[in-house]
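To: structure subgroup
Subject: Chain for Friday's discussion

All,

I'm putting the inputs and outputs inline so they're searchable in the archive.
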Amino acid sequence: MNASLLSMLLVPLVAAFVLLAGRGLFSQSSARRFALLASVATLLLSLSFANDFLKLPVPSPRMSPVEPRFSVAYHWFTYGTAAKDANGETPLKFEFLFGADGITLTLILLTTLLTVSGVLISWESIRDRAAGFYACLLLLEAGLIGVFAAFDLVLFYVFFEFTLVPLFFLIGIWGGPQRRYAAIKFFLYTFAGSVVTLVGLVALVLIASSAGVAAPTSMPALSQWITAHPLPNELQIALFLAISVGFLVKVPVFPLHTWLPLAHTEAPTAGSVMLAGVLLKLGTFGMLRLCLPLFPYACQTVGIPLMASLAVAGIIYGSLCALAQRDIKKLVAYSSVAHLGFCLLGMFALNAAGISGGVLQMINHGLSTGALFLLVGMVYDRYHTRMLDDLGGLAKRLPLIAVVMVFISMASIGLPGLNGFIGEVLSLAGMFRRNHVYAVLGTTGVVLGAWYMLTMLQGAFFGPLREPEHGDQAIGDMNLREFAAVAPICVLCLWIGLQPQPIINTIKPDVDAVVAVHEAYLPGNERVAAAPPRANALINPTPND
């Protein structure tokens, strides 16, 4: 398993550097074939790793709320002597820790799948500097895998920031007419938020090291120490607010979302697929990995009202903005603001149902919204427009694309039997147990989501045929390559909708461990359901007065 985990990171990274170093030697055809080979190899490695991972026993008892089920450690350096020095100071040990838990596994599989789809959808549309384009796409894949597999704060932050670079170039070089402005706005927004997060992380490491934690950058060691020795309430709140800023920008929540619609609109199709499908999940993943297990008091007292309010505002605002759009790609971009609000809403229910729903919604949104961007890209490649005013009745001309678009739209809406339903129901059910008002307000997003998606379908694919001028160009339906890009996503949308239990079981030990940290703060009627017996090994903190 060591080789599989590290190879998932190294294969796209090495392939990207080969493309960059030999970009003058690669033609468009050879570059895309090489990129497809590398992305498919990474996908197969991730499937092999998943097969081995699922055979591992669940650690019981767990010693930490953040604990990889499988890990690879590399010692970096040690500061200080092996024993305590004359002043009683513990030597500091720094090591790179890669690993995987159930949540990591699902997100890595999502990343590797969407990368293959991104390569396939760019097959004909990327003609200029193809080697550089595919190198950036593979670098982005490597960075995303690195974030999800990092159980060390240094590695986590380095990969978290590294993902900005390839996407910046994807938007800025291969994007639309306003690509440079969109790329700069995306970079500045996300980088500014990440700087605040860095300040919070540095402060946390300094506090841990001064308290005698031997490995202050290790997430398992940090979470174990903080669970046994909860930080003072005021300090928890300050660190929670600082660290969460970069994650909130990345989600993005209202009103920190303004970089997203432009970035999506100007990005090439593959860039939009990776941005919506995976990159936006870094924000909610960071919340789940760091904020929820490390700062329970802050999450309960500040996090619930703040994050739930922002989530509800994003759900309603994003849905209304999507309803007003005439550009289909911008409509899907605003729908992301709404759907990720459900992720945040579920997570800050701080119970098993809500957090499980939030994680499922991360996966479901990546699948359905990634597929929507693939389909919008197919339409754009044929007509070079995404405006609803220019399109109509396309089901007559593009029946297969229309069928898949209807299917994926139903998944995005949350139709029972498809993947979106499970995540939304669990998120709302978890929040309903926490706060009825937030849950009821969040439910309005379900109605609004159906409204704007069905309006888009009716306007673009049904009614009288209306096409923009395309000269002598022959307009054909979905081809085999495009079908290969979107078909696995459709299968997963149906499978998760009918059989969500395997994913729920995969993430359950990690969700239960986070919930156990919050048991002392939960109302009495929630404690039995929220904290499973195997999580009792975690030391339940007593809230500071």
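Points worth raising on Friday:
The chain has a mean pLDDT of 88.
DSSP finds 22 helices and two strands in the chain.

D.
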